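Bench log, entry 3. Co-assembly request; chain sequences pasted below exactly as received.
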Amino acid sequence: GAVVSQHPSRVICKSGTSVKIECRSLDFQATTMFWYRQFPKQSLMLMATSNEGSKATYEQGVEKDKFLINHASLTLSTLTVTSAHPEDSSFYICSAIIPEGGADTQYFGPGTRLTVL
Amino acid sequence: AQSVTQPDIHITVSEGASLELRCNYSYGATPYLFWYVQSPGQGLQLLLKYFSGDTLVQGIKGFEAEFKRSQSSFNLRKPSVHWSDAAEYFCAVSDYNNNDMRFGAGTRLTVKP
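Structure output for the full assembly:
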C-alpha cells in the first residue's frame, strides 16, 4: 500500500492566492522529505529537501520565499506556494526516505496537480 | 555531478513482446540506481533498485534490470509486455544516502494490442 500521501490531489486557485500542499509519511517517521516539480511530459525536478526541525535546503533557482516548506513533525511536510501565478501551475510530488536493506530508498506520494487561473 | 540519460523518449511495443528500456548514468562514486514507473496523473512507483551485489535485480510486475559498470548502464527489461504496462518510466541515480537523486528524462511506453 501507499507509504506516502499527499493532500490535496488537485487544486485550482486564483492568481495571487496561496496554496498549501501536505505530504505525509504513513506508518513511519521521515526526517527527510523531498519536493519535486514536474511539468507536462517532462521529468521530475528537485525543488528542495525538507528536514524535520530545521530549514529546508533549496535547489539553485528555486525561490525559497515563494515556495515555503515546513517540516514540523516526523510525518508531515508542507509546501506553500505563495502568491501563486499561472506559471506556478504544475504537478508537485513529494517523497520520503525509508531506510531499507542497508541503504535508503525514496518513496513518492501520488502528486498534487496545481492549476492557477 | 551525477546525471542520467534515457536515450529513448518514446517506445511502442506489441502486447506480449519483450521490452528493453535503456538507461545510462554518469556518477563519480558507487551509483545507487532505480527504476520508477508513473501512470498519467499519478506519482512514481518504485519498480526496482540496485545498491550492490548481484548485478541482475528483480523487481515488481515482472521487471528486471541489469547493472553493467563497464557500460555505465542500468537497462530495464521485461520478457512479455502487458497492456497495463503502458506508462512513463524513469531511471534515477543517487548517492548512498539518497539525498541527491537525479532522474532521466523518462521513456514513454505505448503497448499495441
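The interface with chain B takes residues 4, 6, 32, 34, 41-44, 46, 49, 91, 93, 95, 97, 101-111, 113 of chain A (CB under 8 Å). The radius of gyration of chain A is 14 Å.
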